[in-house]
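Dear colleague,

Thank you for sharing your sequence with our group. We've completed the structure prediction you requested, and as agreed, I am returning the results in plain text so they can be pasted directly into your records. Please verify that the sequence below matches your submission; if there's any discrepancy, let me know and we will rerun it promptly.
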Amino acid sequence: MAIALFTLASIACGISQSLTQFVAARAVQGLGSALMTPVGRILVLRNVSKSELLNATAPITWPALFAPVIGPVLGGFMATYLSWH
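Please find the predicted structure tokens below.
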């Protein structure tokens, strides 16, 4: 459900026609994103043995670490050189 919420909110961001719609869609997108990390970790903890835990959690952790670094740069590039739609 968290992935579906995030995906639908991302689509809503892309088709938004006003700043108000865009901000509302981003808020819902943030909610979906905030739910994905804990849900992903719970799934990993339930399905992976303790010896494989570090290797299994790395794919969940790295995007959360890189997104705050790459997101603003990519967003700034898109807003400057491409249409925000």
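Summary note from our side: The chain has one domain: 2-81.

Kind regards,
the structure core
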